[in-house]
Amino acid sequence: MGLPRFARPKEGDGESSPNLYVANCGPAVGLSYDTIASAFSSFGEIKGVYAADESGARVIVSFLESGSADSAFKALNGRPCPHLGGRSLHIRHSVLQPQSSIVHHTVPVALMASDLNIPGLYLFHDFITAEEEKELLLAVDNRPWKSLSKRRVQHYGYEFCYDTKNVDTKQHLGALPSFVSSILKRVSSSPDINDHANLVLDQLTVNEYQPGVGLSPHIDTHSAFEGSIFSLSLAGPCIMEFRRYTSGSWVRNITSNTDGQIENPDSCTELSRKAIYLPPRSMLLISGEARYAWQHYIPHHKIDNVKGTMIRRSSRRVSFTFRKVRTGPCQCEFPQYCDSQSDR
Ligand SMILES: O=C(O)CCC(=O)C(=O)O
Ligand SMILES: [Fe+2]
């Protein structure tokens, strides 16, 4: 089933459309497309039932006749539906989207970094034990969090400034805290990470994401941090996507976004997108091309489709991102993404 050409309607849009946008309904809440089609078919002939987005909990029910959609809307909107497990459906009329504005959302989600074929990207499962995870969470929960618009953060070593998307190297907050010493030791003694282990990691950002909260696409500012970035996932899972524009140029995003560091390359023509599943206790290493040329981001989903299994982000996710603050300009091989090598 391809992605439907339907948009989530704006308030008041799409009346008398044969298509309904139905929320709280779909495979993620245990309702198959066949079951949904059968429940709605009592109002008229159904053309198809489609995923409305990647959540798995919102569908488009498309009738042949708009009168059928109106009847279904009146009978089912906001009421428990006995043929759909007693769920209360939230229904709106939907509209057809012009072909040109369709965004193709679904990217298959890999479990192993090697399946993504992005040079410099590695994922180490079970990098820490469940006991260590508990201790790390306890340690950060005993320290003050700083609230951003959608998530909470803590900074160690150096403060990360979200307005400049950089660090103030003159403001050293001190050594990284002792509760991460064993992690740092493991990083530097791990044979798999050896090429990157000579980095003395001196900056730590702890991010806490509530379920459904993601992170906007960005490349960590080249001039702020050296080559390798280590991100440890704790508590809950998420997927991380990577994208690269094959012909893009560096441009500073002037909007006040608290998430990213470099955003929105202009004159982009083609886009490669890949996604990986990050389970709790895994360590992601973003280095080389993955670090300098690919944007990374976390989609704002409550449920991720990982190889056909719907995985609910049921608890918060906390990540520990370790980086090395850069002291000279970046001289990477990707000047088009590099603020040190840009004359803008
Ligand atoms: O939460 C994560 O794993 C990634 C965080 C990140 O990309 C960043 O802080 O730059
Ligand atoms: Fe990042």
TrEMBL record:
SUPFAM superfamilies: Clavaminate synthase-like (SSF51197), RNA-binding domain, RBD (SSF54928). Gene3D superfamilies: 3.30.70.330, Alpha-ketoglutarate-dependent dioxygenase AlkB-like (2.60.120.590). Transmembrane segments: none annotated. Residues 196-326 form the Fe2OG dioxygenase domain. GO terms for biological process: demethylation. Pfam families: 2OG-FeII_Oxy_2 (PF13532). This is Oxoglutarate/iron-dependent dioxygenase. It comes from Corchorus olitorius.
